């Protein structure tokens, strides 16, 4: 993923997957330091303007909120959760079963 990010730094997907797998690593390890690293990766992703037109924006905010909460940054966790709650998508996805609800 890091090589893909170097090849096209404007593409959100390499950074998304880096962030996602760092979060999974943190979940399995339960180490605060891994949650901190994962949160940093999510924050890097949010610097890319293309994320705001992506269908995974809500999920990205939710993952960032989780990482902040597990890292003990409760205000930042609430901030990201409010952002997630305010994402208005045309189709709501259930990211666990990959079903969508809506039109």
User: End-to-end span in angstroms?
Assistant: 34 Å
List the strand order in the largest sheet.
1-2
CATH architecture assignment name:
Alpha Horseshoe
SSE string, helices as H and strands as E: HHHHHEE
* Total domains: 1
Q: Please name the CATH topology.
A: Serine Threonine Protein Phosphatase 5, Tetratricopeptide repeat
CATH class: Mainly Alpha
Number of strands: 2
Q: Compute the number of helices.
A: 5
The backbone outline, from C-alpha atoms, is: globular
**What percent of residues adopt helix (DSSP H or I)?**
55-70%
Task: Please give the largest β-sheet.
Answer: 2 strands, antiparallel
Strand content: 5-15%
Mean pLDDT: 88
Low-confidence stretches: none
By helix and strand content, what is the structural category? mainly alpha
Q: C-alpha Rg, in Å?
A: 14 Å
């Amino acid at each position: 993923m890091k090589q893909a990010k170097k090849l096209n730094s404007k593409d959100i997907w390499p950074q998304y997957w880096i962030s996602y797998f760092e979060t999974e690593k943190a979940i399995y390890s339960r180490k605060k330091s891994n949650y901190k690293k994962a949160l940093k990766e999510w924050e890097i992703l949010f610097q890319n303007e293309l994320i705001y037109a992506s269908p995974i924006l809500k999920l990205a905010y939710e993952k960032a909120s989780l990482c902040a909460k597990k890292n003990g940054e409760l205000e930042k966790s609430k901030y990201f959760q409010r952002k997630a709650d305010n994402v208005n998508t045309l189709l709501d996805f259930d990211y666990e079963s990959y079903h969508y609800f809506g039109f």
